[in-house]
Amino acid sequence: MADPLSQRQLDELSADADRFIAELDEEVYVHYSGQKETFEISPIYERHEELTRLETALRLGASVNGSKNVRELWRFACEGYLGNFVREEAERAAALEASLVAKVDEDEIGFRSLRPAIMNEPDRARRERTERARNELTEEHLNPLHVQAADVIHRETANLGAPSYTELYRRFGYPLDDLAEQCRAFLDSTEQLWEEAGDRFFRDRIGLGLGDVERWDVARVWRGVQWDAAFPGDRMVPALEASLADLGVDLRSQANVHLDLDDRPNKTPRAFCVPIEVPDRVMLVMKPTGGPDDWRALFHEAGHTEHFAHTSPSLTVEERRLGDNAVTEGWAMLLEHLTIDPVWLERRLDFPRPREFAAEGAVQLLWLLRRYSAKLLYELELHTADDVTTMRPRYVELLHDALKVQPSDTDYLDDVDEGFYASQYLRAWALEAQLRGYLRERFGNAWFTRRDAGSLVRELWAEGQKPTADELLDEVTGQSLELEAVAVRIREAL
Length: 494
What we know:
This protein is 63% helix and 5% strand. It contains 22 helices and five strands. The strands form two sheets. A three-stranded mixed β-sheet has the order 3-5-4. It has a two-stranded antiparallel sheet with strand order 1-2. Strand 1 and strand 2 (107-110) form a beta hairpin. Helix 6 packs antiparallel against helix 7 (124-157), helix 17 (354-382) runs antiparallel to helix 18 (392-403) and helix 19 (421-443) packs across helix 22 (484-493). It is globular.
């Protein structure tokens, strides 16, 4: 049994964690924004080796004693301990993603540009060839690293005193079992809805039903190219600024928010947020191209940005930087879902057929909820498997059952989020749906234009990550998180 730490030791580790995260986030920013070709996290781990030592993690575990902050620091140390063992694989994978090139017909396409290429390709046969090229690169270059990393993670988890990775996260307080039951119930309750709405939607868009649609078709359909004219690239940032202004936020005058709009060759095409210093230096990185998917991504990351930028500096490191990520994901989704709100569309974009587009967004949301429900159920099994390479067929089975579209078995490890992050997304969708319902009831369907609604949202943003998603929802509405609440919103939109 490890000895618990003194308060002074806990404070020192907390301060060290603050710097560790800031340095990691800085590296993430410069690499994925295209300013640095390499992704060098090993030196950062070496500078903060005390945080990633097994003894530190075990002593933090012995120090929890009901303290939420210490439990969060314990989780961070355990994740750091495990991450230390796979940092080389992470660096190599990032380097490969930045350098690998696929040959598709006569064109050479960088690995990170393959998914956007599939989404933007009108020719179905070429989409298939592009997808297969991506799968070949994943299988040959990335999957060996993923297998190696997964084996190491599972082996080292035992040293942290847990029989499995899944059990470790149960001890961190993750409600995995309750959420898994909700996922099964959600899949059951929306099975017929998905079969009917999904089939009708794909037939309307590409003339193929669920039995005939392939995964490379789905990416193209979700791209929503027919709506591009309504979502021009040059109006993205102005629309975001105007929407935030309605909530009482002047984006351009926020000294702690930095917009990176520069176009660089290796810049990740999708918008992302990096809270390097919370709340003092939050990066919103984007490469505006236009189209509904690009707008959704920007508004989602803007939700993260504003949440972190409004977080009270008086909170502890654990309450600002760690905590329940379903909270920040919920805020991200609240802003993202403005782009499929018919009232917002009519007000902000003078949209031609807002309810038709909102219904399309609801179908896509249903796809995502069913996909992530299946992902969580798969990951719960994956992280208790003796040999992860045996899980390929199970991945295909669960995802196909949920979506009625065949996934690629090459993604059985690439499609896994670290730290059961799929559970955070699922809980965030529930949080967003229930918060949005509350805001509509209290402030009206145009709640996002009300300054008093903005005051409430900013007040809640200031709480950072101190409350869990469950606590936040209970504080505001008195409700408990329920995935079925998302199904209710989806049925309303349809």
